[in-house]
Amino acid sequence: MLRGGIIGLGIKGTQYIELISQDPRTEVAGIYDIDKAKTEELAKKHGLRGFASAKEMFEEADLDFVYIGTPDFAHTEYVLQAAGYGVNILVEKPMATSYEEALEMAEAVKKSGVKLQVAFSNRFNQPFIQVKNAVDSGEVGEILSINTKLNDTIYVPTKMLSWASRSTPAWFLMSHTMDMASWLKGKRAKTIYATGVKQHLVKMGIDTYDALQALVTYEDGTQAFFESQWVSPEGAPMIFDFKFDLVGTKGSISVDTQDQMFHITKDSLKYRGTMDMRVNGRLLGQTAFTYQAFIDALEKGIQPSPSIEDGLENVKMLVAVHESAATGKVITVN
Ligand SMILES: NC(=O)c1ccc[n+]([C@@H]2O[C@H](COP(=O)([O-])OP(=O)(O)OC[C@H]3O[C@@H](n4cnc5c(N)ncnc54)[C@H](O)[C@@H]3O)[C@@H](O)[C@H]2O)c1
Fold this sequence. Notes:
Elements: E1 2-7, H1 11-22, E2 26-32, H2 36-46, H3 54-60, E3 65-68, H4 76-84, E4 88-92, H5 99-112, E5 116-119, H6 126-136, E6 143-152, H7 155-160, H8 169-185, E7 189-197, H9 200-203, E8 211-218, E9 223-229, E10 240-248, E11 252-256, E12 263-265, E13 269-271, E14 276-279, E15 282-285, H10 286-300, H11 308-327, E16 331-332
Parallel strand pairs: 1-2, 1-3, 3-4, 4-5, 6-9
Antiparallel strand pairs: 6-10, 7-8, 7-16, 8-9, 10-11, 12-13, 14-15
This protein binds nicotinamide-adenine-dinucleotide.
């Protein structure tokens, strides 16, 4: 049985308590959150061992792997620690919020020889598995253009996340769509031009972008456009709006995950998420598939995917998005 630790016990971390516990190959050997009361409460609720620090957990829990579900800006310290203790790592996206930190992680992981997967869970989101299959089979030919939109309602930066001012819609949302484009194309970005709007949330005391838009030109001359904003009205039927269109030389593909295939209407219309669902008491869907892929790789002794290189490239692109939005310049990425 593989022994897993969890660092960061928020929305994602608590999902991972469930995922690690329900997989017959793994068990939760320790949990830690900077919020001591939360660690203690969840340890008591699930009969787990809570630790007062990550260091203590690495030293005492005999971990085979750790899941890092801390806020976007707080992954680095724990990746470095885990690598130092020889513990395999599943880290949330974006891998880091600075390229220097991402590079430091990559060096530490390489030096220690541990395995690292970045939890780009949309690679395991069912419609996108079909997109990848169609692209890889050559059905749509060579990809010429991609157009993506991944937006959230204003609930996310104002009520769901306490740390939105230390992230942006690009770190939190565009990290997904940029990774998907790189994954599907198998090409690296050459230049990025981005613009951003910083008005509405700033007025509400949350110092971050409302919206960011980026135009990426890849090394083969093809292009992709990315929009991410997190200020849609809370009345939207779904917390996110995710659209993905690509055009190739032989055909096009269009995905709209806004419609989650289930609609319920009371005083207003709501879609209900079908990406992560309980079936016979087990949490299944894209997050579970992400986790299973990581454990499969550990069991087979192979490098997991999405890899640390995917994480690094993603951070490099997102750093360029922020630099371009701040300076108005086209940034050369590779
Ligand atoms: N893969 C996906 O689809 C997906 C979806 C949502 C969020 N995420 C990512 O997962 C990460 C966590 O997001 P969330 O929505 O669970 O956030 P959250 O705010 O619900 O949870 C974060 C937890 O980390 C704890 N924390 C904060 N700073 C810490 C530190 N320095 N050390 C230890 N614990 C600390 C907080 O107390 C909180 O319990 C983020 O990087 C986010 O972008 C990924």
